[in-house]
Design a protein that fits this description.
Layout: E1 2-8, E2 11-16, E3 28-36, H1 39-45, E4 62-69, E5 81-84, E6 87-88, E7 116-117, E8 134-137, E9 145-146, H2 153-158, H3 162-172, E10 180-184, H4 188-199, E11 204-209, H5 212-221, E12 225-228, H6 235-241, E13 248-253, H7 263-271, H8 280-288, E14 289-297, H9 310-316, E15 319-322, H10 327-339, E16 351-354, H11 358-366, E17 375-378
Parallel strand pairs: 10-11, 10-13, 11-12, 13-14, 14-15, 16-17
Antiparallel strand pairs: 1-2, 3-4, 3-8, 3-17, 4-5, 5-9, 6-7
Helix pairs in contact: 3-4, 3-10, 6-8
Length: about 375
């Protein structure tokens, strides 16, 4: 089959790899119809996440058709069209029982933090992802969800990660009616977090980024105030000034390891890889939120030390909340929001690219060319 093949930092290509096989009675084999490139895939692509091994196939945002089932799968049948959450979750461990599907203990039992994730290095369990023609889906009775009849497949693929991650970013912020919410990052997740902040009652939403076309997009989609940090001088001072020197009620870090804006963080976190990414956005969030405020973190950082102003967290009495989105927990509500027209996920998709052109797709998305917001890869069988 055709599959994306990671050959080292900034090097991916399309290649022929063996077809995935049923390895456990709870497995399913899914023929991929859509797979996205995520902003967090760029952390792998750029070499920011440890133990990303040559030969791995990325891709944790997948829809497809069930082609083969293990003997122990009872909730699916051959031919079902499914969306596959990025979490690989057993559904039975102590964390899954708390609906913390992003922290499943069984799918990534060698880790002390994150559960299994499709196509996200061996820190995420070493599972191949769905930027391919076929993908093996473990615990197929738990994660894969049959796509509701009539739902646009482009909406469905966005429900595997972007929508639930943006929604949970707002949810973890504990937004109260009338709150001022600042979102750092106008990538797809930041855009969705800004949109979802209104669903929780925000009175004002501000987005900070440095790419003008993304800021223009989020200003229209969310809608919200949008500012290029390069034009603001000191970002924290600006945000304090515009909130009567109190600070925002809630700040959301939707950037993670690839943040720009501070030379030292960029050198240590992105160039020398001496910490788990550039924590610039996290610094800004901590320093610009009000005393007693909440910082919600969905941006991905590597599992090594990161320079964070923890003294400011303590002295300001802040609450920090972060996690991988528990997609399965959120899907019923989010499917309803899409069906009712409250959310329009497919509007974020700007590029539909043949799987065979995956290397070009990564280059376009990484370099922010051609006003790219969200690229989706389409395998040959889904184009016929």
């Amino acid at each position: 089959m055709l599959a994306m093949n990671f050959r080292g930092p900034l090097r991916v290509r399309i290649d022929h790899k063996p077809m995935p096989e049923i390895q456990h009675p709870q497995d399913a084999i899914v023929r991929v119809t859509r797979s996205c490139i995520c902003g967090s895939d760029l952390h792998l692509y750029n070499g920011s996440v440890p133990d990303t091994r040559v030969g791995m196939t990325f891709g944790h945002e997948v829809t497809g058709v069930v082609e083969e089932l293990g003997a122990g799968v009872g909730n699916l049948k051959i031919g079902d069209q499914v969306l596959v959450p990025f979490n690989i979750a057993c559904g039975k461990c102590v964390f899954c029982q708390q609906e913390l599907y992003g922290n499943c203990h069984e799918s990534n039992s060698q880790a002390t933090a994150v559960g299994g994730i499709f196509g996200y290095s061996h820190t995420g369990g070493g599972y191949d992802g769905g930027q391919a023609e076929y993908v093996r889906v473990p615990y197929a009775d738990v994660g894969p969800t049959v796509i509701p009849e009539g739902m646009d497949p482009d909406d469905a693929v966005m429900l595997t990660d972007v929508v639930p991650t943006g929604y949970q970013a707002a949810e973890m912020g504990g937004i109260q009616p009338g709150d001022t919410v600042v979102v750092f990052g106008a990538g797809p997740v930041g855009i969705m977090a800004a949109r979802c902040a209104w669903l929780f009652g925000a009175g004002r939403v501000i987005v900070i980024d440095h790419v003008d076309y993304r800021l223009e997009f989020v200003k229209n989609y969310a809608p919200c105030e949008a500012y290029n940090f390069k034009s603001l001088g000191d970002v924290v001072v600006f945000l304090k000034r515009t909130t009567d020197w109190m600070g925002a009620d809630v700040c959301i870090d939707a950037v993670g390891a690839e943040a720009a804006g501070r030379v030292m963080q960029t050198i240590l976190g992105r160039k020398l890889l001496m910490q788990g990414g550039s924590a610039t956005a996290l610094h800004w969030a901590i320093n610009s939120v009000k005393k007693g405020g909440i910082v919600s973190i969905v941006g991905v950082y590597g599992p090594i030390d990161t320079l964070v102003p923890i003294g400011n967290v303590v002295n300001k009495g802040l609450t920090l909340r972060g996690n991988q989105a528990s997609v399965k927990r959120l899907l019923p509500r989010l499917i309803e929001h899409v069906q009712n027209g409250i959310l329009d996920p497919k509007a974020l998709i700007t590029h539909r690219i043949p799987l065979e052109e995956v290397s070009d797709a990564y280059r376009i998305f990484s370099a922010k060319l051609d006003n790219c917001i969200k690229p989706v890869l389409i395998p040959p069988s889904a184009r016929s």
